[in-house]
Each structure stands twice: as C-alpha cells, then as structure tokens.
Design goal:
Blueprint: H1 10-27, H2 32-39, H3 43-50, H4 59-69, H5 73-88, H6 96-99, H7 104-115, E1 118-123, H8 134-144, H9 150-163, E2 175-181, H10 182-186, H11 192-205, E3 211-216, E4 230-234, E5 243-247, E6 252-255, H12 258-274, H13 278-291
Parallel strand pairs: 1-2, 2-3
Antiparallel strand pairs: 1-4, 4-5, 5-6
Helix pairs in contact: 1-4, 1-5, 2-3, 4-5, 8-9, 11-13
C-alpha cells in the first residue's frame, strides 16, 4: 500500500507498520522470539507491533528494528514517519469529545473499519451506516432509542458522519460494497422529505469509484441473508484476517473463525448474484425517490 503518511490516519499507519515490520523480520530470517531476546522486550511486544494493536508506536523502536533487520535508508525513513504519525495524530474516535460517547467494543470496531481495505455489508432493515444522512439517523434514534436525549442523538450523528470519511479519504478510500433489501427503500424513517433526501444521498454516493450499491428485490425470494444483517471486513495489510461484524439492539459481536468468515463470504456472493447490478440498482433507487414525493 503506497500510503502518504502525512494524510493517512494513525490506524492506517499502524497497519502499514505492522505489515512491513513483519516482512522485514521474515526477510532477515528471524523469529519473534529471537527479536524479543535481542531487544530485551516482553514476549507480547513484537506481536502487538506486527498486529497493529498498539495505539502508539515509538519511533525509537522502529529505528532499532530496522537496524536489526538491515532495512535500507528509504524504508527506515518511511517507517519512522509512520510511527511519528501514531505519536502526533490521534484517531478521531480517541478524541475527548467522542471517547465517552463510544463504547469500548465499538471503538475496537472503528479501529478495524478505519484500517480495512474493503467492507461488504448486507442490510435488511435500514440504510447502511456509511450511507446514512443526518436526519435519517435522527429518525432512527428518536423511534428505536426513545430514552436518548437530543444531545446524545446529536453526538451519535456526529460519530456516524465522521465514520463516513473512510469513503472519501485521500489515502486508500475504503472499497465499500452494500446490498440493501428493497424494504429499506420503502420503510418510512423520519417522514417523506427525510426519505427522499436519504435515497438521493445513496444515489450520489453510489457513483463513487470505490462504492458499489445493489438493491435486493422482493422478487428474489428466499436468500442467504434472511438470518439478519452482517458486515464483512477485509484487510490488505498487517497480516490481519477478514472478520465478521454482527450487531443487535444490545450487543455487537466480532467473528474471526475462518469457517464463519467463509460462510458469510459465500452468503454475500449469493446475495450479489440475486440482486441486480449497480447500474440497474441505481435505477431502482431513483424510481423509489419518485415515490417519496
């Protein structure tokens, strides 16, 4: 991944560091145990560095590893810059204004979403979060989360809108594929104007080069997504395996088992084959917009 460190998020820099440090170690013919013995580190430190689990990476650690691995000067400089970004910049969900409003389990997901190279999602009940408008979010939370104050809902909206920056970031925008059940286009959330604006927004975002939106029609009948919505995240760098993210009213679950990931991957492929392609689906969305007049 050719990432411009100046514009990359700390999450992306950590992932790039993890990938390149691991590749350098393997090229040097060293095991993780040999590295920690020479560096006098704890056994888990090299693992955290190579799986992007550290919030901050010390440039001095990166310099020391590069010397041990015999990295060339250009690589050393680039990796040191990545490490410096993790020291000088903070992922947006770690900022004081958001930290208290985001559950630790969801912060973990946001870290993965920000570092993912691709996200495939199926949604049966509402517009995927990365495609939602502010008023659509407000409509959901006023009805489905009746106990929340206006200030709390405003904070949720801020978080949701900030998340969407992964679709347009200058450094490797997220490759986003969404399959939306036709029911989502018909179910009123927030009223006619909100729905019309929401569907227009989907139509606008759907033409981005990194975005693919399909609508699963009622006529498709029984399908592989009938057990509920899901998201499949894939990673290009860092040695991270794909994960499945499932969310319900009270909980969120992450599945990493290879057989689970494969099963959901097959389900998404099946849904893609049942739904019209992006161009035809865009036509379906535009027809639905006319109905919300």
């Amino acid at each position: 991944m050719n990432t411009d460190a100046e514009s990359a998020s700390p999450a992306l820099c950590r992932l790039q560091l993890a990938s390149e440090l691991r590749q350098l170690r393997l090229a040097a013919g060293l095991t993780g145990s040999q590295v920690v013995d020479r560096m006098l580190w704890s056994a888990s430190k090299i693992t955290r560095l190579e799986t992007a689990e550290n919030a901050v990476v010390e440039p001095s650690d990166v310099i020391a590893l590069c010397e041990m691995y015999g990295a060339d000067s250009e690589t050393r400089s680039q990796l040191e810059t990545y490490a410096a970004v993790t020291k000088t910049k903070r992922d947006w969900w770690q900022s004081k204004e958001y930290r208290q409003a985001i559950k630790p389990s969801f912060r973990a997901y946001l870290r993965l979403e920000a570092a993912a190279s691709a996200l495939q999602t199926y949604q049966s009940e509402f517009v995927p979060g990365l495609l939602q408008t502010e008023e659509y979010v407000r409509g959901i939370y006023r009805r489905a989360h009746a106990g929340m104050s206006d200030d709390e809902i405003d904070r949720v909206i801020e978080i949701r809108m900030t998340r969407q920056e992964v679709l347009t970031r200058s450094a490797s925008p997220l490759k986003f594929s969404a399959i939306i059940n036709e029911a989502v286009l018909r179910r009123s959330v927030g009223g006619v104007e909100v729905m019309r604006s929401q569907l227009q927004h989907i139509a606008e975002v759907a033409v981005l080069p990194s975005v693919r939106v399909q609508v699963l029609p009622f006529r498709a009948g029984a399908h592989a997504g009938m057990d509920g919505a899901f998201a499949l995240l894939r990673f290009r760098e860092g040695g991270l395996k794909p994960i499945i993210y499932l969310e319900n009213l009270t909980n969120a679950l992450v599945h990493r088992q290879e057989e689970d990931v494969e099963r959901y991957g097959d389900a998404f492929t099946d849904l893609q084959s049942l739904a019209p392609g992006p161009e035809e689906s865009l036509g379906v969305i535009k027809e639905a917009i006319k109905e919300w007049q």
